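Recall the central idea of this unit: under ordinary conditions, the amino acid sequence of a chain determines the structure it adopts. In this exercise we apply that idea directly, starting from the sequence alone.
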Amino acid sequence: MSIIAENVTKTYGNQQALNGVSFQIDKGQIVGFLGPNGAGKSTMMKIITCYIPPTSGKVSVCGFDVMEQSIQAKKHIGYLPELNPLYTDMYVREYLSFIGGMYKIQNLKTRVEEMIETVGLQPEAHKKIETLSKGYRQRVGLAQALIHDPEVLILDEPTSGLDPNQLVEIRNLIVQVGKTKTVMLSTHIMQEVEAMCDKAFIIDRGKIVADNLDVKELAKGNLKLEEIFKKVTSRD
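Accordingly, the structure predicted from this sequence is:
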């Protein structure tokens, strides 16, 4: 298994963001992590990527406990958070070289050029990040998440705010990346999950309410993921 979460709980004071969340994600899958605003998606992703600790429970990535073996776990994780934290006063190649240098990547210049080609940044690679459109900034964010060749890629709202053309381009890129890596992504767009993902989980008010949904089997049965989402997250 690439990711295993076991009875994960996270509290902030009196607020419980996650309540006994458990799931497993197999190697080589693209998995959609769905839920309403405030459901706990970003909190779970931050725990998986070692940014915050769980209050209780256990998470492992590629066999490494994210609390006890965080350095080893991070080597296997690429992360693109919802708010893409780029150094916008840097040039694209300069930024990717900076990130790659922190990972102590050998043949760094070659690897940077590989990433620029992989994510389709060639037309903008000579520019400062601050001059790029949101779509190209997302490509830079994906490049930095991929530059150390991680086994697991965590993407928090990767297509949020993109125009239709940018959305299709980023979607195709994620599908391509998912052929060789495990990808976990959060989104509010059901059509994106149906287009990209093998499996889907739905979380609501800190609990998993739909587990291990097979996206392709749902489509064969003419079942709409949006209808399932509405049913299991209804406040009625």
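The chain has one domain: 3-22+39-185+197-211.
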